[in-house]
Structure prediction request, 103 residues.
Amino acid sequence: MKTYTFDAVKDELIGEIGTPERDLFEYELQMDLVGRAIKQTRKERNLTQEELGKLIGVQKAQISRLENKTSNVTMDTLLRVFTALEARVKLQVELPNVNVSVG
Prediction:
């Protein structure tokens, strides 16, 4: 029986790194993980979606969409959510010939 690495399976089924299909897959995966982390932390802090929304000035529906990755979210909203949840945020941006870290 032949075995395959997870990376090889992703390359075959989704597309290789750098293709639009793979970039979209990786983005959606990251947003799903962020949403799950926000939901888990919110629950650990015994906050409802409505309470978290009030803390940062958005409606409950926006918190729900963020947790369920059903809409685009601004960096400002994400940072306000992380601040309200007392999260430590590190941001790293890599561009050709430029490396920026904030955090």
